[in-house]
Amino acid sequence: MSAQPVNPNLAPDHVTVFIDGVELAAPKGSMIIHAADKAGIPIPRFCYHDKLAIAANCRMCLVDTEVGGRGAPKPSPACATPVMDGLKVFTRNDKALKAQRNVMEFLLINHPLDCPICDQGGECELQDLSLGYGRSVSRFAERKRVVADEDLGPLVATEMTRCIQCTRCVRFTAEIAGTYELGGMQRGENLQIGTYDGKPLTTELSGNVIDVCPVGALTNKVFRFRARPWELIARESLGGHDALGSNLFHHLRRGDVMRTVPRDNEAVNECWISDRDRYSHQGLTADDRAVRPLVKDGGEWREASWEEALTRAETILRDNAADQLGVLVHPATSNEEGTLLARLADALGTGNLDHRIAQRDLSDAAVAEAFAMPVAELDKADVVLLVGSNLRHEVPLLHHRVRQAWTRGAKVYVVNPVDFDFTFDIEDKAIVAPSKIAATLQVAELGDALRGAKHAAIIVGAQAEGSAHAADIRKAAAALASSTGASLCRIPQGANALGLTRAGVLPSSRDANAMLAEPRGAYVIYGIEPGLDFADQAQALKALGAAQVVAFSHFACQSTRQVADVILPIGALAEIDATLTNLEGRDQQATAAGKLPGDARAGWRVLRALGGAMDLAGFDFTDLAGLRAGLQGKTVQVAASAAPVVDGDGLELAVTQAIYRVDGLTRRAAALQSHPLNVGPRIVLHPDDAAANGVTDGSMAKVANAVGTATLQVAVDDRVAPGAAWVESGYGATAALAAGKVKVVAA
Q1: 260 pLDDT exceeds 70?
Q2: Dihedrals φ, ψ of 414, to 5°?
Q3: Which CATH architecture has domain 294-364+497-629?
Q4: Domain map of the chain by residue range?
Q5: How does DSSP classify residue 252?
Q6: Is 141 helix (H, G, I), strand (E, B) or coil?
């Protein structure tokens, strides 16, 4: 064979290959399947996945090859055979087709004939390829093997007899999730895929094994036996539980959301979604869903017409206009709804408007900011610093990006009050109480590590942003980024906090903390569950309970009924057309999927009706297109409030959001509440602090501070910083506590 390249005009890092007679240029080191896919030439496969390492297990992609006029003695797997200059590949000649058909026959030897009852039927890769490469009659007459199923938890159902040992699920948990929970046991025909210890999957990305499984071995336990794929209609939507805004499809049948699957977007979530985004749609059908307008008369609730409910709301707002009115907005509210709420506040003459309801320290008037580094580039960073963040629970797919950076050689540093579980190694960590985080960021060694990097990122998370010392931490992080040239990435506290900031849902008079500390005569609360969503629940319930409250709500829950005077039912994100802005400033649109329950309406429609009835400026549009045509950014001179008081004795409280208790939908998703990561309300102490306070692991303790009192189970863990106590929010039992200092005594 000549040493001269086939095509001398080709770039030096490319070679010329011929696939089914088509001349192609392919990068050196790539595989035949990569070149074929790029050219649109189909090659059957099962074990290959473009996001996973190559295994070459299934051999379904066998092709015939020829180099220099000499044919290969046997077919080659296209996924594991690198291209070379002058390589000829035949995917459809007699040799290749015979090999592919023989492999298909082999894979079907033990596969059960249960397509009619399999949830994968209709979108099964094995089913599809068997039509092209399978035999009409099996030659296998022996007894098929049977594999016992494992319980992988409340999210993933198993039928392991169907497994073809492609190991996609194994590679996913090892490479993407980083939990190494699935593996192959035994050998040969006895090989079985499962968990060695028989425990359920604990990764927050477990549902993705359903998507990567090419057969019906792993299916959606929540969706199981509820519908056929061909009965479903797909609607484009977004994940509304963190600031990443993962792209997804809601699949619906007759207006009901049946399941949620990922939608590819390499710039955001690639082809994955978190379990939180996948299963939260269960909460749409909760028993306490707000389905009809409700008004309170004499302390008793009754159903009302929309006209009566809007009239009641109008009366409350007119009687308490200007400074007597406070408007509190959930940070997952859409841009359209946020814009109308800002117009409503302006028209009523109040500057008491805020969406930062879960942040305790706003003394620096901090607002959400876009990431200084695009999400798609984060996995190329060479140094990452995590500050006050349980990133794996906070934004699971952002944690995945950091893991990908680590696998490429990046060093990860951590400054946290708790040594949280991550799926990557930590170069160095400082586990300190929340009050010491800001000072720790000024350590010279940390600055040197960031300064020596080409692409460094500082990620500031929810524990820092929601801390009683948040202003100091933000200042220290900004100074560190400025002095080292690192990209500052503050995670917005809410799925659409950045969009609401740009829409002007911010205070020019009193922020969220100030308008609760200085109670107003009336409040509008939008999309909020009053008993669980505020930074200081006790203060919020006291202020709201003494005022007149108009609640735009997805749920008529107990805490909403306790404080509201009128409840206006509105649609959740999965049920409305909406625009959200993610953490890197990317505007993304969701399309209405599920039908609105009962008499509920899209929030923008209710706001338009209310603004129109009050004859307010900015509410004269007639449809969503008209509303969107008028959307524009609004600059607000943000008012700051006093810094929270954290004096006194006791342990510093480090508060993080429980992964499946972040909002009303996740709290009502039964499958998520059964997940092993949902550990329940508790207080976690360092062993030294537990001993000093006379409590032991598993015992009950009374936890008290100036804000409230709670009785919680104690967990003792040396991962918690000495002098600190770790509590997860989102539970009624922990709602009475804010981020300050607490005293712990045995119950």
Answers
A1: yes
A2: -135, 135
A3: 3-Layer(aba) Sandwich (3.40)
A4: 14-107, 115-284, 294-364+497-629, 375-490, 651-746
A5: E
A6: coil
